[in-house]
Structure formats: structure tokens, C-alpha cells
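Service request form, structural biology core

Requester: graduate student, group of Dr. S.
Request type: structure prediction, single chain
Budget code: on file
Notes: please return the result as C-alpha cells.

Sequence provided:
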Amino acid sequence: MNRTMLIIAMFCSASTFAQSPVIDNANIDNSGAQYQGNVGVNQAAGDLQQQANARAIAIGQSASATTDIRQRLHTIVDPRIDARSSIQGDAFSHGNGVLGVNQSAGASNQQANALRISISAQPQSIDDSVLMQQNVTLLNNSDPTDSAPGYRQVATSDQAFTGSRGVIQLNQSAGVGNRMANTFSVRVAD
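Core staff response, request fulfilled:
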């Protein structure tokens, strides 16, 4: 094989070795309609995702409902991720109760839903101090500084969650290094 042909063959195959961007898609379509009671859904597409749905209910003279969620990530990720999260159709519509949905696409995302209900004669403090998320995400990008990060999209249909009653907690993200939390606390004193 002559040198010219070898050089042409190398240039033609260079695109074969180029790494294409990662594509992460999380999709919920028409799921969970007419749910009843306590429902928790965690859906993740990608790498290094942390998700939690925590529920605590306490009834009694000195009852105290508590939740404790601790999420820690120390990661190095490539920001060239194409990520899409979507909730489509009649998903989670016409339900009744407590619903927690965490949906993420991408890398190194943290999501938490916490619910505390206490029925007691004693007072109880209500704050977010029991929720801790720590996310140290370093972007590993050896591309030129003008290179664009990946495409990110979050979508929820206008029919999703319609007609539902109760407590609905939703975290939905697409991308890299997102942190989201929902807390709901109720104390009823006798």
C-alpha cells in the first residue's frame, strides 16, 4: 500500500474514533394515572444519579415524625451530554394521596422528596435541616473553550397531574450537577 493511500485511509477513519455525545432520555408516558395512597417514583437516565422519596408519619402523645436524607456526590463528568426528561400524556392524573416523583437525565444529579406528618400534643419544629445534599461535580472537558455543552430539555404535558388531590412533589431535571429538594411538614396538635 502506498503512503498516499495510507494517509487517506487514516483521515477517512478519524471520524470513527471521535466520541459522540452521550444521549440520556428519561420518559414517563401515561403512567400512574388514578394512583391511590402513597406512591413514590424514581426514574433516572445517565450516570451517578441519587434520588429519594422519604415519608414519615407519627401519631401519639409525644409523636415526632422525622426524615433524614443525606446525599453526597464527588464526580468528574463530561458536560457534552444531551439530556431530556419528559412526563407525557395523562401521567399521574386523577390520583389521590401522596405522590413523589423524581425524574432526571444526565449526570451527577440529586433529587429528594421528604414528607413528615405528626399528630401529637407536643410542639415540633419544622425546618429543612434534616435534608442535606452535597454535590461536587467537576466538568471534564478537554475541548476548546468555545465548545458548547450538550442539549438539555425538560417537558411536562399539560394533562399530567390534572385532577389529582393530596400532596404532589415533583423534581424533574436534565443536565449535569443539579440539586433539587421538596419538603412538606405538617404538625397537628390535639
